[in-house]
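queue> pop job 88
queue> type: inverse folding (structure -> sequence)
queue> payload:
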């Protein structure tokens, strides 16, 4: 941090949970198309995209990637105008990757549909964004989405995504527009947990700098090979992974979906140096019969999207021989915090890293809005160049999310310490209120993950006639272990106040997951509610 930034930090009271942005890493003032032009100029012959083809690999260099993206941009401009929305609906593919940058060069806006959506959800996205084209491929099972897309959007708007590069090869060269960094580029749909999905509107500047800052903080460069199955319809793939690799001149390996065996095969074939995924993905790699510690040489393992227990972090570091990196972001703000190589396992397990450069963070009382003290739990609010412009065509939702001072209210509960580390403790709406006491699920989960027999855990609040809500824990045990509810309650009681100790338990073989691999807590709550006699239980 420079002397100027250090002086800036004194503008907030030292005991307040409010951290001004570190501007030590410069922002990039360009569009996503400019980012690809830069990488093609600096690293023309280096691999940019790699994907499985038969038993081997196919490749596009950075210069070839730019050429194909420019042809796609010209093909798009024959059918739509700058500013129009384009809706890819597919699992990952090389055509999807080329389309993202083709849209950027054409001045158009990506508004991707999740391949796991129902027709009802797609119809909502269609009505909201009015895409000029829907490029349909396959879902994660390999089932074609083309006919469904035609039924939803009409024949005239639907193009098979897997034919895009072939179709664009016949397009004549054209003069491309010059979008500004402040122009809208990505409409990233939220999960829709509070109603129908909203579209977070992100500019070129937001996308480029979220990718650039994440790559810079991890120490990535042009020699890196990134293997990560994060969907391109999700912020992790569309912002962090693909643009992140291009931002430093590196190589992005396209995986159409997550499969542990194929992941390991691509890591070896492509020479992976950086991998990542949510904890369930990383654990599946370690437990796959094809995994052999020391068989790949990695520089970093990214773990995000959920709390990562310390034993898993230590195991990842040991078996992959590389530092583990954790981060925190939202569709509305693609980078909020990040750890850096060398951070110890305890901090990686207990926090989501430090505040990211150019991101101002404060923790406020969810009711009064007053800034809290360091270490106190409240709502995390952020401001900076990477924050969304608002929700697309939803002014009321935008005004509710971004206040008059430009702070995005994340809806996440957390705490900030004096060193800039952030702890995320759950959602504001997920607080368990038992007899007037506020209980944060993440704190209880962290305590239970300290038990040697616990593999994964999800803590939720369930109705209780006496206390209003009771703490309930769903637990996936490590193979070969059999602790009882009494054992786990006794362990929790050594780390938590009595009212925080779970009193309802459910042992599961596997957790219900969201499309991006997180534990689906709404589904976990439903499992507890469906247990015999759940509505009649009264805990002491």
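queue> result:
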């Amino acid at each position: 941090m420079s002397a100027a930034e250090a002086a800036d930090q004194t503008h907030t009271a030292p005991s307040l949970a409010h951290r001004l942005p570190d501007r030590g890493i410069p922002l990039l003032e360009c569009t996503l198309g400019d980012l690809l032009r830069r990488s093609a100029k600096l690293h023309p012959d280096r691999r940019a995209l790699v994907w499985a083809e038969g038993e081997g690999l196919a490749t596009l260099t950075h210069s070839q990637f730019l050429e194909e993206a420019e042809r796609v941009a010209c093909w798009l401009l024959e059918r739509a105008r700058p500013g129009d929305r384009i809706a890819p609906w597919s699992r990952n593919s090389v055509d999807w990757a080329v389309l993202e940058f083709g849209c950027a060069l054409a001045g158009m806006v990506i508004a991707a549909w999740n391949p796991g959506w129902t027709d009802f959800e797609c119809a909502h996205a269609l009505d909201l964004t009015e895409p000029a084209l829907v490029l349909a491929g396959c879902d994660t099972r390999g089932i074609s989405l083309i006919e469904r897309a035609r039924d939803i959007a009409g024949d005239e708007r639907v193009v098979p995504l897997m034919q895009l590069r072939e179709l664009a090869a016949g397009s004549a060269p054209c003069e491309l527009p010059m979008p500004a960094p402040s122009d809208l580029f990505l409409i990233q749909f939220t999960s829709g947990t509070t109603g129908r999905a909203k579209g977070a509107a992100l500019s070129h500047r937001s996308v480029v700098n979220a990718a650039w800052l994440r790559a810079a903080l991890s120490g990535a460069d042009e020699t890196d090979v990134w293997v990560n199955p994060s969907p391109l319809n999700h912020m992790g793939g569309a912002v962090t992974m693909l643009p992140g690799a291009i931002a430093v001149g590196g190589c992005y390996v396209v995986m159409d979906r997550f499969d542990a065996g194929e992941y390991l095969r691509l890591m070896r074939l492509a020479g992976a140096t950086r991998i990542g995924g949510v904890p369930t993905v990383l654990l599946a790699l370690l437990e796959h019969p094809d995994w052999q510690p020391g068989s790949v040489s990695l520089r970093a393992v990214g773990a995000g999207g959920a709390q990562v227990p310390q034993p898993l972090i230590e195991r990842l570091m040991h078996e992959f021989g590389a530092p583990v990196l954790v981060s925190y972001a939202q569709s509305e703000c693609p980078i909020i915090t990040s750890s850096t190589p060398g951070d110890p396992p305890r901090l990686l397990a207990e926090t989501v890293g430090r505040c990211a450069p150019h991101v101002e963070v404060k923790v406020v009382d969810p009711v009064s809005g007053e800034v809290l003290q360091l270490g106190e739990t409240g709502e995390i609010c952020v401001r900076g160049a990477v924050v969304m412009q608002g929700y697309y065509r939803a002014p009321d939702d935008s005004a509710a999310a971004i206040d008059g001072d430009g702070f995005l209210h994340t809806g996440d509960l957390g705490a900030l310490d004096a060193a800039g580390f952030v702890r995320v403790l759950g959602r504001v709406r997920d607080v368990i209120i038992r007899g007037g006491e506020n209980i944060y699920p993440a704190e209880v989960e962290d305590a239970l993950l300290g038990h040697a027999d616990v593999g994964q855990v999800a803590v939720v609040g369930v109705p209780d006639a006496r206390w209003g809500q009771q703490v309930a824990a769903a637990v996936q045990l490590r193979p070969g272990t059999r602790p009882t509810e009494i054992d786990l309650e006794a362990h929790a009681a050594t780390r938590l106040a009595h009212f925080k100790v779970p009193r309802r338990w459910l042992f599961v073989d596997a957790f219900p997951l969201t499309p991006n691999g997180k534990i689906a807590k709404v589904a976990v709550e439903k499992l507890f509610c469906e247990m015999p006699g759940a509505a009649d239980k009264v805990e002491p």
